[in-house]
Design brief:
- The complex is a heterodimer.
- By secondary structure, chain A is α+β, with helices and mostly antiparallel strands.
- Chain A has nine helices and seven strands; from the N terminus they run αααααβαββαββααββ.
- Chain A folds into two domains: 1-160, no CATH class; 167-315, Heat Shock Protein 90 (2-Layer Sandwich), CATH 3.30.565.
- In chain A, the strands form two sheets. A five-stranded mixed beta sheet of chain A has the order 2-4-5-7-6, covered by helices on one side. In chain A, strands 1-3 form a two-stranded antiparallel sheet.
- Chain B is an alpha/beta fold.
- In chain B, strand 4 (78-82), helix 4 and strand 5 form a beta-alpha-beta unit.
- The longest helix of chain B has 13 residues, at 11-23.
- Chain B is globular, with a radius of gyration of 13 Å.
- The chains are: A alpha+beta, B alpha/beta.
């Protein structure tokens, strides 16, 4: 009995229900429902008073009030129903991605390990040609693995289950380290990387693991989207309470008409697709989501055929 | 010859690991579900257990728990090899007494083999 009462009370508490949907109060059906209820009562009372002032026949007043109430209830029902559908669809999509990614992983692990046995040559010789093809398989398995990892990451971000371990650390040290690791790739692409960071910059307060992924993603994009040779410049600076990271490239740039979509999931710019078919269009979406979760911001400037500059800002202290 | 018990419901993975670990000079026994796995630990007393967590009949956590509660089997090192990667799963398995926790997607085969060898040396 007590359980049932508790359940009913829980259902009547819009704030608790809204937490479950993980959306803001203004998009949350149970809250909107209560709000609309209050509006209906208010409008009915107002209608009654206005009607009694203007109309003498109480029957007509009653009719007007009833008609008003009916119209409002129908509108209310339509609005809340559609909101409910939207949030249900969004929840299902997140769950769907989660399930698919997990189910895809098992066979992919099988492929990965089996191929490793073949490439190891421990079970007989393989020809040069065979090795070439094995390498193609290996590379593609890795691409698919990364894609699944990113999908899982997105589903975790969107369901609010991404774990954070914030701490203080030096952003320039981290950046230096990442640039060093990118050296073989940047040299192979004929791209020079410059790092400009003042000494004694304050430490940033964030999760170093995720920040590393974000910087790697930005650096990878910057190098990848330079045709032939070019330059990437990274600059780190500070203002009171905030650290700024700036990365400019001399790459192909983002066409003006497509700039507003750049942080959207799965979006890939047309001028890039012409000669860079690889890439999932998830990196910037993930970077933006994670930066915002850490209390930061990301933005960019770009001119087609001139280059792109990405900026992000992070707080220094909690 | 040292014996490794591999409890894993994916038969392809069983085959791969059997091939690789036999080449390294170990004897491999396998179980396709948690129940058989736990029975084999008690019967065969392997030197090491490679354990998946998502298993039919009895999941890996239960196998690990029972194995560590039993006096005769509690000292056998257990390496978790799974696709579960949530931090609460990692913590739970390590708390129950697993030696190492490896997420399949993040490790290459030879790295897993290295961990097995290292654990058996210790």
């Amino acid at each position: 009995m007590a359980e049932t009462i508790k359940k009913i009370l829980n259902m009547l508490n819009p704030f608790g229900e809204c937490k479950k949907y993980r959306i803001s109060l203004w998009q949350c059906p149970p809250f909107l429902f209560v709000l609309m209820g209050l509006i209906i009562i208010g409008v009915i009372i107002a209608t009654y008073f206005i009607a009694t002032l203007r109309i003498d026949d109480p029957k007509i007043v009653t009719l007007i009030v009833l008609a008003m109430a009916a119209i409002l209830i129908v509108i209310d029902y339509i609005i809340t129903r559609s909101f409910e559908r939207i949030s249900e669809a969004s929840r299902m999509k997140t769950e769907f991605i989660d399930i698919i990614s997990h189910q895809l992983r098992s066979p992919l692990v099988n492929l990965k390990y089996s191929l490793e046995v073949l490439i190891s040559k421990k079970h007989g010789k393989i020809s040069k040609k065979e090795l070439e093809y094995f390498k193609i398989l290996d590379e593609n398995i890795k691409i698919m693995g990364n894609l699944i990892n990113n999908l899982l990451l997105i589903s975790r971000i969107e369901s609010g289950k991404l774990p954070f371990k914030k701490q203080e650390f030096s952003l320039s040290e981290l950046t230096k380290e990442i640039i060093l690791k990118f050296k073989p790739f940047s040299e192979a692409s004929n791209v020079k990387i410059k790092l400009k960071a003042k000494k004694n910059l304050p430490k940033v307060f964030a999760d170093p693991f995720w920040l590393r992924q974000i910087i790697k993603n930005l650096l990878d994009n910057a190098i990848r989207y330079i045709k032939q040779k070019g330059e990437v410049e990274v600059k780190i600076s500070s203002k009171p309470k905030k650290l700024y990271f700036k990365i400019s490239d001399t790459g192909v740039g983002i066409p003006k008409s497509e700039q507003k979509y750049i942080f959207q999931k799965f979006f890939r710019s047309k001028n890039i697709l012409k000669y860079q078919t690889r890439g999932s269009g998830l990196g910037l979406y993930i970077s933006k989501s994670i930066l915002e979760l850490m209390g930061g911001k990301i933005w960019f400037e770009s001119k087609e055929r001139k280059g792109t500059t990405f900026y992000f800002m992070l707080p220094i202290k909690k | 010859m040292k014996t490794i018990l591999f409890i894993e419901d994916e038969s392809v993975l069983q085959k791969t690991f059997r091939d690789v670990l036999e080449k390294e000079g170990y004897k491999i026994i396998t179980a396709l579900d948690g129940e058989i796995g736990l029975r084999l630990v008690k019967e065969k007393k392997p030197n090491l257990v490679l354990l998946d967590l998502v298993l039919p009949k009895m999941d890996g956590f239960e196998v690990l728990k029972e194995l560590k509660e039993n006096k005769e089997t509690k000292d056998i090192p257990v390496i978790i090899l799974t696709n579960l990667e949530k931090s609460e799963d990692v913590d739970k398995a390590l708390e129950l007494g697993a030696t190492t926790y490896l997420v399949k997607a993040n490790y290459e085969l030879k790295e897993v083999v290295e961990k097995v060898k290292k654990t058996l040396r210790e």
